Amino acid sequence: MARRARRHFTAEQKAQAVRLVKETGNLSRVAQDLDLTRSSLVAWVRQAEVDAGQGPGGALTTEEKAELTRLRREVPVRRSPPARRLTPGPALQRVRTPAARPRPRV
Fold first, then answer.
1. What pTM was estimated for this model as a whole?
2. Confidence label for 60 from pLDDT (cuts 50, 70 and 90)
């Protein structure tokens, strides 16, 4: 089965779908009638509740999410590069054995 191309919906389309769910009380039926996935419609209904002030505490409204996205794009997170070792570790250092030592000149 081929995947369907990703569709984009306007805020008005989402609001109308949420209104239909609230009027009928049957989310699955509305999703089927509008040819939407149930999970998408559930997310839209939850977001509408948050925007109306009825969602769980700490949930971000649509405007707050948009502002957060804008700020994240505006101020990218600076990550320091990993610290460089100035000397090689013990595994990379040349180990001198008595046979490898140069002979003193006479």
1. 0.63
2. very high
Task: State the CATH number of the domain containing residue 43.
Answer: 1.10.10
Token output for 26: 């049957």
Does residue 42 carry a pLDDT above 80? yes
Structural domain count, the chain: 1
What's the domain range around 41? 11-68
- Chain-centre distance for alpha carbon 1: 27
Residue 31 lies in a domain: yes
Q: In this structure, are residues 43 and 23 in contact, taking their beta carbons and an 8 Å threshold?
A: no
Diameter of the chain measured on Cα atoms: 104
DSSP string covering 19-53, please?
A: HHHHHH--HHHHHHHTT--HHHHHHHHHHHHHHTT
- Band of residue 93 on the pLDDT scale cut at 50, 70, 90: low
**Please, how many CA atoms are within 13 Å of residue 104, restricted to the half-sphere of its CB?**
1
Question: From CA 69, how far away is CA 61, in angstroms rounded?
Answer: 12
Count the residues in the chain: 106
